[in-house]
Write a structure and sequence with these properties.
Helix content is 12%, strand content 34%. The strands form 2 sheets. The protein has a 6-stranded antiparallel beta sheet, with helices on one face. Strands 3-5 form a two-stranded antiparallel ribbon. The protein has one domain: Thiol Ester Dehydrase, Chain A, CATH 3.10.129.10. With 170 residues, it is mainly β.
């Protein structure tokens, strides 16, 4: 499955929807990935072409720290694929942290075609997971790290900042 980049000047939340909408809950400018190249029960390969006018871009390029978000969205797409198999839609999840994130470059250059890989190392019934991730360009590893994530098991988002207090809690 491949997706076209949103044309310049057009918002992603306009019609037609972005092709990644079926994979991730991210919308608008925060939907950073372009497509999913491969996905199975344990791993995913997503693609992104670094946009010259993208969110977070500066004069030197896309800061390498954005790679953590590329990785997190690849994990979200993997989770979205699992949910879709069961007839659902992508659910909200949370990036809890990263370990050993290392970038071989300070910036990803505009126009660069990146492959974002995420491999599930652990996914508990309680929604806690660990993923080994890397970003490559033309076979060269540009960034790597391990992400800790949480997806509420029922998909309700309970405990999220948007959920507010539960009934009886104030």
């Amino acid at each position: 499955m491949t997706a076209a980049r949103t044309p310049p000047g057009e918002q992603r939340d306009s019609w037609p929807p972005h092709a990644m909408d079926a994979w991730v809950p991210h919308r608008g400018a925060m939907n950073l990935l372009d497509s999913v190249a491969q996905c199975d029960e344990l791993a995913i390969e997503a693609r992104v072409r670094v946009p010259a006018d993208g969110l977070f871009m500066d004069a030197d390029g896309m800061p390498a720290w954005v790679g953590i978000e590329y990785m997190a969205q690849a994990v979200a797409a993997w989770s979205g694929a699992r949910t879709r198999v069961g007839g659902g839609s992508p659910r909200i999840g949370y990036l809890l942290g990263s370990r050993r994130y290392e970038a071989a470059v300070p910036f990803f250059e505009a126009g660069a075609e990146l492959q974002v890989f995420a491999q599930c190392e652990l996914m508990g019934d309680n929604g806690l997971g660990m993923f080994e991730c890397r970003i490559e360009r033309d076979g060269r590893v540009l960034a790597s790290g391990r992400l800790s994530v949480f997806e509420p098991p029922d998909g309700s988002g309970e405990g999220s900042p948007q959920s507010g207090p539960r009934e009886g809690q104030e």
